[in-house]
């Protein structure tokens, strides 16, 4: 019996690796298409409609905003576990600044975004300068933020005197038929995509994430890049908290906490999309949309609330697994 030569075996191995790599890159998109198709066939009158798709993207918009900011730190090989707590605190602060301190909307919003960036600066200094593990540093900061949020709000939602113009930011429509949050999501995600993919700063961020020691030898200020990355993550979380408070019409303690796991799931799911385990802005957006469509389908079919948590946890585990598998393929 004839046996394949070593060269043919090598070609078969290369071909198998290429096929696995292609599958890993597009598996999430295939999964999204199959999920949309399945939900559409099971609920043809409710799911595959323009209004429902707009609603899904609108629901995903806040996750996208917080997740693309988080992507900046994950790209550098760090984790920011404070983003959900930053969102909760900033949602309370923006309402409190307007209702208690009398600040106008146009001043309260940028002030709170600056506070979010300042929290990110603290995280960055703890990680980059003091060399504290990012998990420990950001989790510790996030826990402290929870205490500050409860202290500022006395543990109760701030609902009285919220200006209608503030509520209209999330619930209004600058473009007919398109909720404002979708517009803001597109602008912010597009801006960060441009920064990462088309500017020297973005190249430096990717270099730090690839090999921080090599980046330092190449003359890149690794500490500065990491601090800026954490500041962008904090600012993104602050914007999410502001928009969430606008959507709810109140500043509610703990309102943004749940965005932490959803944001991480979107980031890791996105790293397995279109690239071999690399974290990138477009992938994060796609990851957030996959999660949003999954939640929407469950809601349409009346699935119990606990099923959403099961889905979210499963997505996070699968996303990390696919991302790790993609990186192993790329490195082998």
Give the tags.
single chain, 332 residues, mainly alpha, ABC transporter involved in vitamin B12 uptake, BtuC, 13 helices, 77% helix
**How much of the sequence is in beta strands?**
under 5%
Per DSSP, the total helix count is: 13
CATH fold naming: ABC transporter involved in vitamin B12 uptake, BtuC
Distance between the termini: 32 Å
Helix coverage percent: over 70%
| Rg (C-alpha, Å) | 21 Å
CATH architecture group name: Orthogonal Bundle
- Overall outline: globular
Number of domains: 1
CATH class: Mainly Alpha
Count the E strands. 0
Order of helices and strands: HHHHHHHHHHHHH
Describe this structure in words.
The chain is mainly α and 332 residues long. The protein has a single domain, classed as ABC transporter involved in vitamin B12 uptake, BtuC (Orthogonal Bundle). It has helices at 6-42, 50-74, 83-99, 105-129, 134-153, 164-171, 180-198, 200-210, 212-217, 222-248, 259-271, 281-300, 305-331. Helix 1 packs antiparallel against helix 13, helix 2 (50-74) packs antiparallel against helix 10 and helix 2 (50-74) crosses helix 12 (281-300). It starts with 5 loop residues before the first helix and ends with a helix. The mean pLDDT is 90.
